[in-house]
Amino acid sequence: MLKKLALAGALVVGAGGMGFWALTAPAPIDPARLAALPEGNAGRGEVMFWAGGCASCHAAPGASGQDKLKLGGGLRLETPFGVFVAPNISPDIEAGIGSWTLPDFANAMLAGISPEGEHYYPAFPYTSYARMKDQDISDLFAFLKTLEPVQGATPGHELAFPFTLRRGLGLWKLMYLDPGPAVVLQRIDEQLQRGQYLVEGPGHCGECHTPRDMAGGLKLDQWLAGAKAPTGEGTIPNITGGEGGIGEWSAADIAYYLESGFTPSYDSVGGEMVAVQENMARLTAEDREAIAAYLKAIPAHAQGQ
Question: Where is each Cytochrome c domain found (predicted)?
Fold first, then answer.
């Protein structure tokens, strides 16, 4: 009888383990959808490149000018879970993504899955990129392929157990990977729709400006309310109209700040926002105005923590 109970218990544990293993398996995009991806346009892809701030993480730290287009990686991102190192995404065959196909790139951007079938850590903001349009993904890939290959792989991430176990990220994705909008706007027009897309998708503004829970997921009920800096030092500002935010800024003020780096009080952009503002300055005036309109339309929150 004891042997039978032990066997039954083992089967239950084994079935539970198998269920967890299946539940957390990487779920690639439907191959039919990937096969239908349109051919990319590098010119349009450059817009997505700057909107997404790709150079801010993947160019060498401190790079400027044309060196921003050399995407050899190496930036260290300090978080409560460990240090993540931005990889080489140049077209280099050995160290970068030169051997990738468009489906490889789409799975990485939209589902957080590597060409080897492993989960990517969400330090790579695919939870935002999941909201991007297939055409924009294809265009961005086309642009990246035009850039200069950079030799040399970056060091690995510096993580402690259990964060070294990527399979558990499948459960995290079930909780937090959602291609739906971060907020529901009270009204919507073409400009607001464009602004929402740029901020919530390629711009991935919420990844820094929204507080996170203990598991590292975004608290969408405090969308863009600001947060503690991941390094534990300082605060990322509130960019809603709530207390401690930018409620006194007009849409024109926001658009001008994104273009010039100057606030309504004639202060200048500083810190990590410098690179973001420089990227935004490369967008069209219409896109910056759309971003400003969206930020004026979202729910107001007090400074997040």
Answer: 40-148, 190-299
E strands, 63-216, are: 76-79, 82-85, 158-159
Give the CA-trace dihedral at 105, 143, 274, 83, to 10 degrees: 30
**pTM confidence score:** 0.88
The 10 Å CB-count burial string (b at 16+, else e) for 163-187 is beeeeebbebbeebbeeeebbeeee
List the one residue out of 297, 231, 284, 212 whose CA is nearest residue 255.
284
Q: Which of 149, 78, 151, 89 is nearest to 114 (CA)?
A: 89
Query: What token pair was written down for 236?
Result: 């990322």
User: Tens digits of per-residue pLDDT, 191-245?
Assistant: 999 999 999 999 999 999 999 998 889 999 999 998 887 766 778 899 999 999 9
Helix (H) or strand (E) holding 236: strand 235-236
CB 237 within 8 A of CB 226: yes
